């Protein structure tokens, strides 16, 4: 994703998390989303928010049957995009483990997570957090306040981004080349498990503390996607049910 558009991407994702943030504050959290409860071939339900980027081609999103279950399929061809899911979790209540399964068709040979021009992944899962604005450095507070004025919504103040990379070792973590408010963590890498469903289970509270150095606040949203616009490549990614559990 291009440097000048990165804040816009987070901003658009944030709009999809507003209702989830309100649910956390009200104690009415939605902690799971089951693609398997939907029908293959139906239109994406209205509670999904499709995140697109101006001047960049949009991924194709569809619900398909796979091994007897309905899953989300995302086709990326020199394009980008994510789906913000209606999920939230109060980590203080103990729902700190995020689980999902995913599958990718191929890795992106030219991707490089350390550089903006290589910031493409076969799969991404974003988790957004509501860090108190007053606790951030002045420069970060100013940027987020500006973004919130533009968005008219609560732009997330921090995020984890779990990725399916091409070459970094599993467990490798680094800041996004665009911002130190997003910590990227490699969960799958290389060609060993292409076209194979992989189940993930992450203690997002522990991952947040490792990245940011303090206890995690409430989760305000989750988004899944992939992108190939920087590498001019293509990939298909499938996502199964996503849920928080104790």
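Q: What amino acid sequence fits the structure above?
A:
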């Amino acid at each position: 994703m291009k440097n000048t558009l990165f804040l816009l991407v987070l901003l658009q994702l944030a709009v999809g998390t507003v209702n989830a943030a309100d649910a956390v504050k009200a104690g009415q959290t939605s902690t799971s989303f089951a693609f398997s409860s939907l029908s293959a071939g139906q239109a994406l339900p209205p509670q999904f928010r499709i995140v697109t980027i101006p001047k960049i081609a949009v991924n194709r999103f569809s619900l398909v049957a796979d091994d007897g279950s309905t899953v989300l399929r995302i086709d990326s061809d020199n394009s980008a995009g994510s789906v913000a899911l209606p999920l939230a979790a109060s980590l203080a209540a103990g729902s700190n483990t995020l689980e999902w399964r995913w599958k990718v068709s191929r890795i992106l040979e030219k991707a490089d997570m350390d550089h903006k021009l290589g910031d493409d992944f076969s799969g991404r899962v974003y988790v957004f957090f509501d860090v108190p604005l007053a606790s951030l450095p002045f420069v970060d507070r100013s940027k987020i306040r500006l973004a919130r004025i533009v968005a008219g919504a609560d732009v997330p103040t921090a995020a984890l981004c779990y990725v399916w990379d091409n070459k970094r070792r599993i467990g490798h973590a680094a800041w996004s080349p665009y911002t130190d408010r997003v910590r990227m963590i490699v969960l799958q890498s290389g060609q060993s498990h292409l076209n194979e469903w992989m189940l993930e289970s992450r203690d997002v509270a522990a991952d947040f503390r490792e990245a940011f150095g303090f206890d995690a606040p409430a989760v305000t949203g989750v988004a899944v996607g992939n992108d190939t616009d920087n590498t001019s490549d293509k990939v298909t990614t499938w996502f199964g049910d996503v849920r928080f559990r104790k």
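Q: And what stands out in the fold?
A: Residues 1-8, 11-28 have pLDDT under 50 and may be disordered.
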